[in-house]
Write a structure and sequence with these properties.
Helix 2 (34-48) packs across helix 5 (83-95). The protein is globular, with a radius of gyration of 14 Å. The chain is mostly helical. 68% of the residues lie in helices and 0% in strands.
Length: 106
C-alpha cells in the first residue's frame, strides 16, 4: 500500500512540478530556452532509463503522453530528446497510430 502511494506521488510530482509548469509551456514558446529544454530532456532521459517500470512508466504517462495533447509538441521536443527517450516516444506514437514526419513517418 505504501509503495503504491509513493508511485502515485511520483506521477503527481512530475505532472505538477515539471511537465505542466515547466516543460509544456517552454515547448509552446515561439523562442524556447534551448538550454532549459536540454536540461529538461536530460532529466527525462534519466527517468526513462530507470530500471524500475514504475519510475520509467511515470515518465511515459506524465511526460511523453502529454506530447500528444497539442499539435506540434512532439516535433518541438524531438531535437532535445536523447536516444532512450526518442525510442520510447516512437513506440508510443506507433502504439497510438500517430505518424509524424521526421519522427516515425518516412
Amino acid at each position: 500500500m505504501l509503495t503504491e502511494r509513493l508511485w502515485v506521488r511520483l506521477y503527481r510530482l512530475l505532472a505538477e512540478c515539471f511537465t505542466t509548469p515547466v516543460l509544456m509551456p517552454e515547448l509552446k514558446r515561439a523562442s524556447p530556452d534551448t538550454e532549459l529544454l536540454g536540461r529538461c530532456w536530460d532529466f527525462v532521459e534519466t527517468i526513462v532509463a530507470h530500471p524500475s517500470e514504475h519510475v520509467s512508466g511515470a515518465a511515459y504517462f506524465e511526460v511523453l503522453e502529454q506530447l500528444l495533447n497539442a499539435e506540434g509538441l512532439a516535433e518541438a521536443a524531438w531535437p532535445y530528446m536523447k536516444d532512450r527517450t526518442r525510442a520510447r516516444t516512437v513506440q508510443m506514437l506507433n502504439f497510438y497510430d500517430v505518424r509524424l514526419p521526421g519522427i516515425n513517418r518516412r
